[in-house]
Amino acid sequence: MKATLKYMAGIAGPSGYGSNSTAEQVIQDSSCFFSDQLTAIITGATSGIGAETARMLAKKGLRIVIAGRDLKKAKEVRENIWKETPNAEVIVLEIDLTSFASIHRFCSEFLSLGLPLHILINNAGIFSQKLEFSEEKVEMTFATNYLGHYLLTEMLIEKMVETSETTGIQGRIINVSSVIHSWVKRDGFCFNHMINGTNYNGTEAYAQSKLANILHAKELARQLRERNANVTINAVHPGIVKTGIIRAHNGLITDSLFFFASKLLKSTSQGASTTCYVALSSKIEGVSGKYFADCNESNCSSLANDEAEAEKLWNNTCALIHKRLHQAAT
Ligand SMILES: NC(=O)c1ccc[n+]([C@@H]2O[C@H](COP(=O)([O-])OP(=O)(O)OC[C@H]3O[C@@H](n4cnc5c(N)ncnc54)[C@H](OP(=O)(O)O)[C@@H]3O)[C@@H](O)[C@H]2O)c1
């Protein structure tokens, strides 16, 4: 109750920001200042929260890589950024997170540019009521929201560590999760069921993938700490924003729910604020493996905090990826 009132009133937390803070306010903050030009990759920057994040980071002077599966849409986002920030350096590269080959191509193309990599924003996401499978025969929501981002991060992490070592600037990875992760019960989080889409339910699959985003951040943060790497990884809940991911579920019930919940909805700029805060603010220098909402560190579910569960998910994912890569090679 107290948290809901705080949310509705937009009361600022320890960061100085709250639920109604916008990405524009966050990037104007002096704690988000860098003397070097930073490079950020943003997945799913062709619409919604990702497009707004890209616009804001470009306005702040970062070099942006729009990682999108639809190049026409990605180029339109770039045109819009250029209208507002004509000197912005915006690179468009193709990626389909449901295809290992596409992720591999994206990484090769990016790495061949010889650019540094300071920030990776794993933002793309889907919420599908239909049971479908990716190129590697993994249920589509899990493949897009979690597995694709896991592989992408794996393929770029050494570049991020190297960049942090040569520039002295901390690398940051942000996994865009959701508060809905807390709906997942322990016995509903079974790796084989998730990849095979057993007893598929769209909402459950979405929640499980968002829980996986947090567990991924927890385990990778632990590993990066262990090797003393100056790269952090955190998960964020952007807030509820009426973007494409929600519009895909239009209908009388969803529309009515959104009409009545409209006071709780965020604008797209408010939705991008937590990602921008975690990507740039010096106030969270060194903070890793945490969960943020409304631009402040927040509590995630006990399952999301379970280190053994995070390690188990990591090991299962590693094994799956190697198995699928081996199958593709034979
Ligand atoms: N909106 C909310 O209320 C809310 C709440 C909590 C968390 N989130 C999270 O916020 C993130 C952004 O969502 P959004 O609300 O901005 O939704 P959105 O407007 O639907 O954007 C989703 C983005 O993901 C991209 N994408 C989907 N599948 C992809 C694939 N296979 N490969 C590459 N890119 C792919 C989409 O590309 P196309 O343009 O090609 O479709 C689009 O750019 C998601 O992770 C979502 O789970 C959103």
Automatic annotation (TrEMBL):
Keywords: Oxidoreductase. The keyword Protein biosynthesis does not apply. CDD domains: retinol-DH_like_SDR_c_like (cd05327). InterPro entries: NAD(P)-bd_dom_sf, SDR_fam. GO terms for molecular function: oxidoreductase activity. Gene3D superfamilies: NAD(P)-binding Rossmann-like Domain (3.40.50.720). Belongs to the short-chain dehydrogenases/reductases (SDR) family. This is Short-chain dehydrogenase TIC 32, chloroplastic. The lineage of its organism: Eukaryota, Viridiplantae, Streptophyta, Embryophyta, Tracheophyta.
